[in-house]
Automatic annotation (TrEMBL):
Residues 262-396 form the GST C-terminal domain. The lineage of its organism: Eukaryota, Viridiplantae, Streptophyta, Embryophyta, Bryophyta. One of its GO terms (molecular function) is glutathione transferase activity. Signal peptide: none annotated. It comes from Physcomitrium patens (Spreading-leaved earth moss). SUPFAM superfamilies: GST C-terminal domain-like, Thioredoxin-like. InterPro entries: Glutathione-S-Trfase_C-like (IPR010987), Glutathione-S-Trfase_C_sf (IPR036282), Glutathione_S-Trfase (IPR040079), Glutathione_S-Trfase_N (IPR004045), GST_Omega-like_C (IPR047047), GST_Omega/GSH (IPR016639), Thioredoxin-like_sf (IPR036249). GO terms for cellular component: cytoplasm. Residues 106-127 are annotated as: Disordered. This is GST C-terminal domain-containing protein. Residues 113-127 have a biased composition (Polar residues).
C-alpha cells in the first residue's frame, strides 16, 4: 500500500511532459480523445486512492502498477523521448536516495565510510576462555575476509568460533546455511560455509547487535567480535579485530608462534596502513560509491597513484615490510583479491587491471598460496555479494563472467616471488 500512496504523491508533482505529442488516455472503454495532463494526473490520483482502499487488489504486483501508470498517463505506447526523460528522472532520484542510505556522502558527494561503533579490547592478552569470543563474518566482505585470514593462519579453530552470514534479499546480513553461494568454491574451508548464528541463534546479524546488553540501533556490520559471557558486541572494526586475533589468543591458538605484527615492524606496518586504507581499501569504495563525477575522478586518481607506488615498491620487496608477511599485507590482499572481478568492473576502477601490474598480481598470488589463505577465499560468494546485492550499482542483477585471473587455477600458477611463505606460516 505504501507504494501506491507514494506513487500518488509522485504523480501529483509530475512536471508537464516536454513533448507536443500526448497520446490518448486509455480507459476501460478504450482511448479517449486528447485528455489534458491534469486529467491524466487526476485519474491516476483517483486510482491510487482506490488501490489504497476498497479496491486494493487492483494491481497484483508493483510491475502491474507501473504498467497501469504508464498506460493511463501516456496510452499504450510511451513516446520514446518522454519515456527516456521520465525514467531518467525517476531512476536518478531513486538512485540518489538509495545511495545516500548505502553510502552516506560528504558535501562534495564523496563517500565517507561511517566509523565503527565498537572498539573494545580484551582486558589482557590470554584472558579469554575458549569459546568466549565469537567471530561473525561474511566471506563476500573484504573487511570480514581479513579476520577470516588471521583466524585461519593462527589456527584458532573453535577456540574463537565463527558464524558465517550471507547477504539476504533485503541487503541485510542473515544466517542461511542452505544458501548455496559457496558451493562452487571447492577450496573454501568447511567451517567458513554459511552457518546459523552459532552464538545467539538469531536470524539476522542486525538482531545480534540489537540483542546486546543495553540494545543497539545503528549499522550492523561484519566483521564483529561478540563477547558471549557479557552478551555484548566487543569490537566491529576489522583493523582492531585482526590485531586482537593475532596477539590475544595465543594461549588458545594452534599456531601461537606466528606473529603478524612483530614489534620491530610496528611503525612500518602503521605507515602502510595509513597509506593503504584511504587510497586502496576504502579507495575502491570511494570510486564505486562516488555520487558526482568530481568525487569519482579524485578517488580514481588517488587509487591508481597508490597502486603505481605499490607496484614500484613490490619490485624490490616480497611483502610490504620486506620478507615478512604482516597484517598490512592481509589488509591489502583482500582488496587486491577482488580487484579484477569486482572493483575494476562494478566500482569503475577502470584505469588498469590488477593483471596489468605484474608485481601486484604476483604478490596477490603469493599471498593466496600461503597455506591457510585460499581456504578463506570464496570468489562465488564475492561475486554474489557484490553483483546481486548492491542493487543501486547493478540494478539488472547480472553477474559478469569471472575474469580468468580470479579463478583458482590461475591463482595457483607460480608467482615467482621467493619461497618464504612456508617458513613464515609453518603449516
Ligand atoms: N570499518 C568496518 C567496515 C565494515 C563494513 O563496512 N562491512 C560491510 C560489509 S563489506 C557491512 O557489514 N555493511 C553493512 C552496513 O553498512 O549496514 C571494518 O573495517 O570492520
Amino acid at each position: 500500500m505504501a507504494l501506491f500512496a507514494q506513487a500518488s504523491s509522485v504523480v501529483s508533482t509530475l512536471p508537464p511532459l516536454s513533448t507536443p505529442f500526448l497520446p490518448p488516455l486509455y480507459t476501460s472503454q478504450g482511448y479517449s480523445a486528447k485528455p489534458t495532463m491534469q486529467q491524466r494526473r487526476n485519474r491516476i490520483a483517483i486510482c491510487c486512492e482506490m488501490g489504497d482502499g476498497s479496491n486494493s487488489s487492483m494491481w497484483s504486483s508493483p510491475a502491474d502498477f507501473v504498467k497501469f501508470l504508464g498506460q493511463n498517463l501516456w496510452g499504450r505506447n510511451l513516446p520514446p523521448g518522454a519515456l527516456v526523460s521520465v525514467v531518467k528522472e525517476v531512476w536518478t532520484t531513486g538512485w540518489l536516495t538509495m545511495m545516500a542510505q548505502l553510502a552516506p556522502p560528504t558535501d562534495k558527494k564523496d563517500y565517507s565510510r561511517p566509523t565503527s561503533q565498537f572498539r573494545g579490547r580484551l582486558p589482557s592478552p590470554s584472558s579469554a576462555k575458549p569459546g568466549q569470543y565469537h567471530l561473525y563474518v561474511a566471506l563476500a566482505c573484504p573487511w570480514a575476509h581479513r579476520t577470516a585470514i588471521v583466524h585461519s593462519l593462527k589456527r584458532l579453530g573453535d577456540a574463537v568460533p565463527i558464524s558465517v552470514a550471507v547477504p539476504g534479499s533485503t541487503g541485510l546480513w542473515e544466517f542461511a546455511p542452505k544458501v548455496g553461494v559457496n558451493s562452487k568454491s571447492g577450496v573454501v574451508a568447511e567451517r567458513l560455509r554459511p552457518t546459523l548464528d552459532r552464538a545467539n541463534g538469531q536470524k539476522l546479524v542486525m538482531d545480534v547487535y540489537k540483542s546486546q546488553q543495553g540494545g543497539y540501533n545503528g549499522r550492523s556490520t561484519v566483521p564483529m567480535l561478540w563477547d558471549s559471557l557479557q552478551k555484548r558486541v566487543m569490537n566491529n572494526e576489522s583493523s582492531d579485530i585482526i590485531e586482537i586475533l593475532n596477539s590475544d589468543f595465543n594461549h588458545l591458538a594452534e599456531n601461537p608462534d606466528l606473529d603478524l605484527a612483530p614489534a620491530d615492524l610496528k611503525s612500518q606496518i602503521e605507515e602502510w596502513n595509513e597509506f593503504i586504507y584511504p587510497n586502496i581499501n576504502n579507495g575502491v569504495y570511494r570510486c564505486g560509491f562516488a555520487q558526482s563525477q568530481e568525487a569519482y575522478d579524485s578517488a580514481v586518481e588517488s587509487l591508481f597513484n597508490a597502486l603505481d607506488k605499490l607496484e614500484a615498491h613490490l619490485a624490490g620487496s616480497r611483502y610490504l615490510c620486506q620478507d615478512t608477511f604482516t597484517l598490512a599485507d592481509v589488509r591489502l590482499f583482500t582488496t587486491l583479491f577482488r580487484f579484477d572481478a569486482v572493483y575494476q568492473i562494478l566500482f569503475k576502477c577502470s584505469k588498469q587491471k590488477l593483471k596489468e601490474y605484474p608485481n601486484l598480481e604476483g604478490y596477490m598470488r603469493d599471498i593466496y598460496q600461503i597455506p591457510g589463505v585460499a581456504s578463506t577465499c570464496d570468489m562465488d560468494a564475492i561475486m554474489h555479494g557484490y553483483y546481486k546485492v548492491l542493487f543501486p550499482l547493478n540494478p539488472g542483477g547480472i553477474s559478469p563472467a569471472m575474469p580468468r585471473v580470479a579463478d583458482s587455477a590461475s591463482l595457483l600458477e607460480p608467482h615467482n616471488r621467493q619461497k618464504v611463505a612456508d617458513l613464515v606460516v609453518g603449516q
